[in-house]
Amino acid sequence: MSNTQHEVVVPPSVGETRLKSNSLGFIGIAFFVVSAAAPMAAFVGASPVIFSAMGPGVPLVYVLVALVIAVFAVGYLKMSRHIVSAGGFVAYISRGLGRHAATGAAGIVIVTYVSLQVGLWAQFAVFAQQLASRLFGLDLPVWGWVLAFLIITTALTMRGVDLNLRILGVLLVLEIIAIAALVIGIVAGSGGKDMSLVSFAPSQLVQPGLGVAVLFVFACFTTFEATTVFAEEAREPRRTIPRALFAVIIFVGVFYTVATWAISVAVGPDKVQDAATNDLAGIIFSVAGKYVGPWLDITMQVLVVSSFIAMLIGVQNMFSRYVFALARGGALPKPLSRVSKKAQVPATAALVNGIVIAVILMAFLWSGADPIVIVFSWFVALGTVGFIVMMGFASVSILVFFIREKLERGFWSTRVAPAAAIVLMVTVLTIAIANYDAMLSGDGSIARQLLWFIPVAFAGGAVLPLVKKDIDFDRITTAGG
Question: What is the pTM of this model?
């Protein structure tokens, strides 16, 4: 077969809508995805929990999870040469396993990203409420913060990527500068203190909290799929998407690894587990105040809130494109595939997403559910497991696709890496289920029942093609020439 490849764009059917092509470059996509990963928010919110479970070996767990994602990405990106679609995992599963598997996967995607958004909005509102109370003495209810900023981020998502990129770019740069200042401050302020590398010792992986740590760390990587969701809007997607995906994996992996190593050094490898357990909410801020100054303490508290805003803008942009693609393919109502005339963004999908998230959150918060113990814990746990399941399905689809189609050479990228990814995803899923209660604060009996949404959503989606014969996710594809 010739190595020359060219893009074949399937003409749209009458009334079909498209996203704005050639509107995002490598930097733009990377900004969206890294911002959606919320480096500052995840560092401050998740790292102490992982330290309390794992001890000083947290940085090594971030390295291992990044490597797992990278193995998955090998086959994923190889297949991206033949698919340019906002449908993400669903489009891949459609090409590899067929319509029934794809519509089943679409059900899981909806459960996954709605759950993640609901949980993260609840956590954001608590941080925003605490910050406003400390700085301004303002004491608004959590649901008030949710509604106010959900309206703002939904409006921004409906406006288009240009404005969003400017906002995300500024916020992300500020986050990186703050964490860099913290790491430099710790290294410089440690004086003659031993800059221990015990965090990277293989013996750290035999700790009893490894399963819990893997689950929480995996949650920090759940937005990398957005690189391919933005494929239809990318300039030169064959080059842009692979570069953006590996840039995101490397950046997120290095960011968390270095930052958590610095915290371990600052507190002491032998003390960090107890310190984190005793002060989950304040350990990072305390280290910042001690090694750099009170100004970094308060700055980081502000940036945690802005990091959540950036993350939620990124996730809403990504999921609205997912909903658009599913509607265009016939799995969701057609009106959700409409795009705005000027910006050519999925404004209708973004609006509906915002309304759905608001309804679910208000139902829980107005009924008195604790925003962290119940809403955040339950929904982020459910979303994380859903994402792992989706990666497993995608891995199987990639392997089947290359065995059947024989479009690419490269035994490693088309056979070994996808097969290894399947084994790794099954392993991670087993760990996730076995340690599911660790992500639940308080009684998890009801929360565990929410896991049934995943197989039920898959089963419901899988039978949809029996009713709707026109479902087709292969609207825009690339093929070898």
Answer: 0.87
